[in-house]
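Appendix B, example 12.
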Amino acid sequence: MLQGPTSDHFSIGLLAPLSGVMGISGPSILNCALLAAEHTAERTGVPIALVVIDAGRGAAEAALVTRQLVNAGLVRGLVGAHTSDVRAAVSDVVADRLPYIFTPPHERDAGVPGTIFTGSGPRLQLQRPLEWIVAHHRVQRWALIGNDYIWPRQVHRTAGQLLRGLGQNVVMDRLVSLGSVDAERLLDEARASRAEAILLSLVGRDGITFQSVAAETGADQRFIRLSTALDENSLLSAGGDSSGLLYAAMPSFIQQEDERHQNLLAVYLKRFGASAPLPASYAEGCYEGVMLLSELWLSGLLGPTPGSTVKHPPASAAQQGAGVAGPPAASRLAIANENDLLVI
């Protein structure tokens, strides 16, 4: 804010959860955003500045800081990897004044000017994983448990439709406030409803708490659990899982073997080391978001390019030749095996 707008670099507002329930994802999101910025700068010769906004401090504060940055002309675009309640507030502030790339799975909120969704909507995220679980497990009765904001609400609506289409019954539907999950009570309610499987849309620390309590009480051996917000960092924090009954539906997993993903993992490990937080799904999505915003800028769609010349277009470290972003892919399904998520 003191420096003011400058023309010698490209400034990106990065909305990352550095605190709050998704705070566990913050370090890896920052690393991947930094990796994308460094790679773009190396290829183009133009410095990329990341202006970090803590999206974990709530929708109102994130929107206020974003408004200040946008009004002052201090950022040319935004990339966000955080909860959708923050996304809705920031979208209202940004409108169509600059691009705002939102990278996690989302509720497919149509008609939002200026906001670019790169993650998958609930139907794309859930359909194939639910079909697989129903086909491979003898279950009929489902409990839906999630946080009480716009994305889990839409997940529950879509899941109900999909499960009914698969001949399943939803016997419990609960939404709880962010940061206040009572896992023992929820598991007791699931037992009382005679649910056989649980669909979880509890994010970050709330999901970690639920999985830990399930293991402590033996519920991990009773319920098939499918989480829409479980990555390797969260699984590790929950103490792992060896029940064979915990699944995750996410856009990507550390151990998936496609070349593009493995290239990104290799570059990340070289840059940050083996002890760095894992570049899990939310972080990888943020990497792609920063690369996409950089491509939009270099295409001339966001105004003139800083500096006299651009040496090379910013082909991403993940691909070294593949496209930076494309249509959202259906989520992969993985099963927890100790501290790993193994792609099915």
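The two ends are 47 Å apart (CA to CA). The chain has ten helices and twelve strands.
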